[in-house]
Structure formats: C-alpha cells, structure tokens
C-alpha cells in the first residue's frame, strides 16, 4: 500500500512516518520502481509506535524494544518508574508554588538560590524537574540555522560585489550582467525562505512533531 493509505489507517502524518523511518523505527521495503511499499506489518509497527508515543515512551526506548535489546515488560517497568519520578517532581513543584503563594512572595523577596538548593536536593532524592539543558537544544538549532544562512548570504553578496567590480574593469552587456548578478540574488531569497521554514520547524520542535497526530 502507499503512504497515503497508511496515513489514513494509522492517523499519523507522512512527515511523522518519514521521521520514524529516519530514526530506524520502521524499515519499509521498496518496490522495483524504487518507491516505498508499505505492508500490514508496517501498519502494525506504526500503531505500536503511536501507542508508545502516546504513553511518552522515548524514541531510544522504542529502538531498544524493537531491536530486542529489551523486553516489553522491562521497558514498561522502567518507564513506570520514570513516570513515578515525574509525578513526584510535579507534586514537589506544586508544593513549592503553593508555599510561595502562601508566603505572599514578590519578585523582590523571592530567594531563588534557596529554592534551587531545595529543588536540587529533591532531584538527588529522585524527583524529576524540568531539564533546562533540553530547552537549550532549540536555541542551538536556531543559531546553527541562522549562521548557515548568514554564511550563504554573505558568499552570495560577495559574488554580486565581484560581478559588479568586474563589470567596471571590463564592461559586460547589461542583460548578461543582470543575469549573472540575479543568480546569487535569487539564491539569497531562497536561503531566506528556507531559513524562515527551518525556524518554524525548530520552534514547533521537529522531534516533537512526531508525537503530534
């Protein structure tokens, strides 16, 4: 069957199906013409992936499960412990919020250092709080996309400058000049459009998209 049929059967977008293939969770056979050919086994695997993602089981855990490095029983037991830690962390966060409200804390009277020390102690005891390092991943991706686009645009601008400088040394017919200078200009526009699309993907969370159906 074709990917459109799979989308309808499983309720997962084409983009997410491709994402799972890239992550090695799904191995789709190809027909003689080179196109992907999905079978019932692929549909069943996608159903499993969808279920596990709904349960917030990570890509890494699913890989280990599908590669027979872990049994489903062990995977679920470990995930249950993780959920219990998260639940405890949420409960602790709620306690901190309620206490700060009852103490009528303002931003000026808030002692962030004391609160952080309290949270760090709870983390040592097993509670799970927000991992700020994970939040920095999007920032790194944004910076990488911007730097890559900036380098490409700079190269194209230099190309345009060189073209016009060369024209002052040895005049080029106007039509040819516009054509030569227009190519890097078009590339600049394309780069900006691609950057805008990339930023939108990053802000939405390209990996996070795989958990949205």
UniProtKB/TrEMBL annotation:
The chain crosses the membrane at residues 144-166, 172-195. InterPro entries: DNA-bd_dom_put_sf, MerR-type_HTH_dom, MerR_fam. Residues 1-68 form the HTH merR-type domain. This is Predicted transcriptional regulators. PANTHER family: HEAVY METAL-DEPENDENT TRANSCRIPTIONAL REGULATOR HI_0293-RELATED (PTHR30204:SF94), REDOX-CYCLING DRUG-SENSING TRANSCRIPTIONAL ACTIVATOR SOXR (PTHR30204). It comes from Blautia obeum A2-162. CDD domains: HTH_MerR-like. GO terms for molecular function: DNA binding; DNA-binding transcription factor activity. The keyword Signal does not apply. It comes from the Bacteria. It holds the Pfam family MerR_1. Keywords: DNA-binding, Membrane, Transcription, Transcription regulation, Transmembrane, Transmembrane helix. The keyword Plastid does not apply.
